[in-house]
Design a protein that fits this description.
single chain; 562 residues; alpha/beta; Rossmann fold; Helix Hairpins; seven-stranded mixed sheet; 16 strands; elongated
Length: 562
């Protein structure tokens, strides 16, 4: 036996009943091979204590030496609390090695001793049978009875849990998705399944194990959860979360009719600053050219239509803005100059107006994205009565979240808690923000909202940001690795993806080309603002001109009287 142990390059710890209490504290920290000589006094007691203390999991390696036959060993170990994931090797008197585990101690399971290998003394080698990996050797749980917990939030359930979960209605979507995945897990490993239902996933304490499914799993009332649950850093210490697979978010749904920034100037955007400066310089040059041409035609060509520098500027602006002017040139030079101006205005005007219309129609209103935005928006707030929402309100003391809680549960009025259909209807008629599971909301929105309302739907403000839910087991559960491997195989073969397509609701697409878009006053405010300034300046100049004119007339009258 010393030769065999010398071949294994793992730290050794020889265990007896006398030193068990000292050694057991090191089990979690060291990757040791614990060797028990079953022929020594107290060895059976030491091994039993280790099994009762759940120190025979996958993290600890055990080698038990017994001067007995296969059946004697089986008789000795069948009443010990050996785990399903144990790494326990038994060496018989003939140096045959067996891999020993129990499919479910206390769960109608049975002790299994799989042939592992033998010591070939003639060659001095350890021969291991690697034809089957440990997953396949431990894949059958026939006769084992496992208990699980799931969540049903719907208080009106008729019939059994299984009948309820077979229903395809979009209620308790997380549990219905999980149920189908767990059924595949059950069929793969052929165990019997007893399922209990709770009304919530976690309690309100740090680890969440004071209530709900988490309490059942933590106190080992059930072996695992058959529903997915949310991973949080405060829970990782107490639970194992296996294979994140269901995308979940809890969000406020509302129509973002929104508002536009009144001072956001869309009318300068079609051209860059350099282009605008270039246009001003060209127009200044053309205004000067128009005036000089008119002066030459008046002096040397006897033209009767003379105008001032200001009139030349106004003519140039009118041609660019209106593509026309009241002045009709009579000579070839001025006609050619006006032709250049009209061509320039045609090109600039068409590009500018098309860009403006596109920008105004495609410009989306400012969207609410924070709790502060939601609180200040004036929207009425309501929620779906869901356990995770209440848990957040009771555990998260953030100022904004507590403000939302007070708006949902006002002291002097009825709480704003609605069922899904009523809540979504309030969102449709608006203005209203309703908090619920996003996947369920999308189902209702697709059925009841028209194309324009769908395009206005916003879901950016979440009490629970989008994350993936996982199956839940107690920390270091004996079935953790089995569930992990099985779910990974289901992921690779597309089974989980198929159920995601069915149960993970997707936001209905916005077909913007199917709706009539209108440009509101708030989008064109800046244009009307400049128009108002123009009118004000015109009236002010008119008043000043009138005052100046009256002053001149009075002086003229005084001079004539004198």
């Amino acid at each position: 036996m010393k030769i065999i142990l010398d071949k294994i390059h793992i730290p050794l710890q020889f265990l007896t009943s006398g030193n068990y209490s000292t050694v057991s504290s090191k089990f979690e920290k060291n990757n040791m091979l614990h060797v028990v000589d079953y022929n020594c006094y107290g060895s059976r007691e030491a091994l039993s204590k280790a099994a009762e203390a759940k120190r025979m999991g996958y993290k600890q390696k055990w080698l038990v030496l017994m001067n007995s036959t296969y059946y004697d060993i089986q008789f000795e170990l069948e009443n010990m609390e050996i785990r399903f994931d144990s790494d326990l090797k038994m060496v018989t008197s003939s140096l045959t090695i067996y891999d020993v585990f129990n499919t479910g101690f206390g769960k109608n399971g049975s002790l299994i001793m799989n042939y592992y290998g033998y010591w070939k003394s003639s060659e001095g080698n350890l021969v291991i049978d690697d034809s089957l990996n440990r997953y396949h050797q431990k894949s059958i749980l026939s006769g084992v009875i496992l208990t699980t917990s799931t969540v049903i939030t719907n208080p009106y359930v008729n019939g059994t849990i299984e009948e309820y979960f077979q229903d395809m209605k979009p209620v308790d979507m997380i549990s219905k998705f999980s149920y189908r995945i767990f059924q595949h897990f059950k069929e793969i490993h052929n165990f019997t399944h007893i399922q209990y239902s709770r009304d919530k996933w976690f309690g309100n304490d740090v680890g969440g194990f004071e209530d709900g499914v988490a309490k059942d799993v933590y106190e080992e009332i059930t072996d695992m959860a058959s529903t997915c649950a949310l991973i949080k850093h405060s829970r990782v210490e107490f639970y194992d979360f296996v294979n994140p697979m269901y995308r979940f978010s809890s969000t406020f749904i509302f129509r973002n009719i929104g508002s536009y920034d009144l001072w956001k100037n869309e009318f300068l955007k079609p051209f860059t600053t350099t282009t605008w400066i270039s246009i001003l310089l060209v127009l200044t040059f053309l205004s000067a050219a128009v005036k000089i041409t008119n002066w030459v035609e008046t002096i040397y060509m006897r033209s009767r239509k003379s105008f001032s520098w200001l009139s030349a500027v106004l003519m140039t602006i009118s041609i660019i803005c209106q593509q026309g002017t009241s002045f009709l040139p009579t000579h070839l030079t001025s006609r050619f100059l006006f032709f250049i101006l009209l061509t320039l205005s045609f090109l600039l005007y068409n590009y500018y107006t098309s860009s403006i219309v596109s920008a105004l129609l495609n410009n989306k209103p400012r969207e609410l994205t924070t709790f502060q935005d939601l609180i200040k928006s004036g929207l009425q707030l309501g929620i779906q009565m869901a356990p995770y929402t209440i848990t957040i309100f009771e555990t998260n003391m953030d100022v904004d979240i507590q403000c939302i809680r007070r708006l949902v549960f006002p002291k002097d009025r009825e709480a704003h808690v609605w069922n899904v259909s009523d809540g979504i209807e309030k969102v449709r008629t608006g203005p209203y923000a309703y908090h619920m599971e996003a996947a369920r909301a999308y189902e209702e929105i697709a059925k009841t909202f028209d194309a324009q309302a769908i395009c206005e739907v916003s879901d950016k403000i979440s009490l629970i940001p989008a994350s993936y839910l996982s199956f839940l087991l107690k920390k270091d559960s004996q079935y953790r690795n089995l569930l992990k491997m099985s779910l990974r195989k289901m992921e690779e073969t597309g089974i989980i993806h198929r159920y995601r397509q069915i149960w993970e609701g997707k936001k209905p697409p916005c077909f913007a080309n199917a709706i009539l878009l209108s440009v509101g006053l708030d989008q064109t405010f800046i244009a009307f603002f400049f128009l108002s300034i123009g009118y004000f300046m015109a009236i002010l100049i008119l008043v000043l001109e009138r005052i100046t004119f009256n002053s001149k007339m009075n002086r003229t009258i005084l001079k004539s009287e004198n």
